Amino acid sequence: MATEAGPKTQAPAGDVLDFVAENAKRYVRQAGGRRVSPAEAELAALAGLHEPFPETSSDPKEVLAKLCEIGSPTTVTTTGGRYFGFVIGGILPAALAANWLAGAWNQNASLRAMSPIAAELEEVVLRWVCEALRFPSDCAGGLVTCATMATFTALATARYALLARAGWNVSDDGMFGAPPIEVVVGAEVHASILKALSLAGFGKKRVTIVEADGQGRMRADKLPKLSERAIVCIQAGNVNTGAFDPAAEICAWAHEQGAWVHVDGAFGLWARLSPKYDQLTKGFEMADSWGTDAHKWPNVGYDSGLVLVRNGDALRASMGITAAYLEPGSRREPMHHAPESSRRARGVELWAALKSLGRSGLRELIETTCARAQRFAAGLREAGFEVLNDVVINQVLVSFGRPEQTREVIRRIQEDGTCWCGGTVWQGKTAMRISVSSWATTEADVDRSLEAMIRIADECRAI
Ligand SMILES: *Cc1c(COP(=O)(O)O)cnc(C)c1O
Fold it and tell me: In this structure, how many other beta carbons lie within 10 angstroms of the beta carbon of residue 226?
């Protein structure tokens, strides 16, 4: 007797996809005009999600209707052009559409046997990224969730390679009793590097800290003498100022002594696409490993971290697993290049984004967002506020006076909803951070946001 496939409530997917597509399209169309932070009244609706675990099944269309009703108004509008918090890009149309298709495909990107298309796209995008960033063409790499995991993967690889040279197999024998590895970071290291160091067994505090200058760049002249078992973590693009460490000098010094250099280039590395900013990124190609995010400047959508490693054998030795039923084929296997095994096919969106932008589009995206950051800096200076950093790429730090004034301005800007910026403390000074990372940010978005910032900051002059 013929039976219907699946539980009765799981009706054919077509209807629910049409319903969601309409809602998603409306959301995308309206994003440019929406408040950036959800209003208090909208947030109150979140309480409606806290029902007991449903006893019975529901119609998928009703489920999705509820999600649209409660979810869409309580999103932060990161896609609309006036979100300048953290370093958060938007999502390119090609990437968003590819994400829908990848969802429909539901591919497991562990092994080529599970998804030929996922495995192939990873090879293509890794080669394209190496080409775009002018890294060695034979670099190996993996697609990971985020820059933190990219750093973790690179540190595990460095650990493997440095200890193998001392005759120690860290994959088999672990860290206890292994020859010590020294880790060097700059004073303005990103907190995620410290997290990755703790995950990888190095410890957050067991590091040598090298002095940084006023923009957060590691002082190459302050580097200590290194052992041949040292990992030096440098950055391309400080998360506050956008500044770049002097990579050429640091790499030359480290390599002379046999040390490994890892680059945290979560967003900054992409500046290598632009001849205008090339000077800042000199020498980063000399490093041994790199971590970056395609969900930041390239506007690919989450989660799109990338790790690249010069020594592919060490990456595979530290990330590969063996099991009789997981025997790799003769081609590159995604799961042997990243910490995760089963995962979604991240390469689909990344491929679509890079293919749709091309070199010229990516370069234009970088240069346009940097120009918008300059427009912010000029507008704020003109209104009498202090810009604390050299605006070298897409990051602006501004002070609105005393720390409590700056904090109050930030709070009111977030509440106002015209745009969204976060706060920070930069070398002792409380500041608001503006990060222009979205392809969707127009000059009009900058001007409208500047108007709101200056209006609110003027209101706070008296407090
Ligand atoms: C964003 C960022 C990170 C962390 O990125 P995640 O993708 O959130 O892990 C690390 N370093 C720098 C410089 C960053 O800007």
Answer: 20
For 41, counting Cβ atoms within 10 Å of its Cβ (0-12 exposed, 13-18 middle, 19+ buried), the class is exposed
Sign of the Cα pseudo-torsion (267, 273, 275, 280, in order): positive
Q: What's the pLDDT score for residue 6?
A: 56
pTM listed for this prediction: 0.96
Between the CA of 43 and the centroid of ligand 1 the distance, in Å, is 27
What is the position in ligand 1's atom list of the atom closest to the CA of 293? 7
Give the per-residue pLDDT at 13. Answer: 82
pLDDT of residue 324: 72
CA 396/CA 375 separation, integer angstroms: 10
* Cβ–Cβ < 8 Å for 78, 88: yes
Q: Which residue of 192, 197, 424 sits with most ligand 1 atoms within 8 Å of its CB, as the best mutation to test the pocket?
A: 192
**What's the pLDDT score for residue 7?**
61
Could you tell me the pLDDT band of residue 5, with boundaries at 50, 70 and 90? low
What average pLDDT does the segment 118-137 reach?
97
Topology at the third CATH level for domain 98-353: Aspartate Aminotransferase; domain 2 (3.40.640)
CB 455 within 8 A of CB 447: no
Atom of ligand 1 nearest to the CA of 235: 13
- Residue ranges of the domains in the chain? 13-77, 98-353, 366-459
Determine the pLDDT at residue 1. Answer: 44
For residue 260, is pLDDT > 90? yes
Residue 332 beta carbon below 6 angstroms from any ligand 1 atom? no
The CB of 185 under 6 Å from ligand 1? The reply is no
pLDDT at 299: 98
- The preferred substitution site among 239, 296, 302, 395 for testing ligand 1, maximizing ligand atoms within 8 Å of CB, is 239
Under CATH, domain 366-459 is a member of which superfamily? Aspartate Aminotransferase, domain 1 (3.90.1150.10)
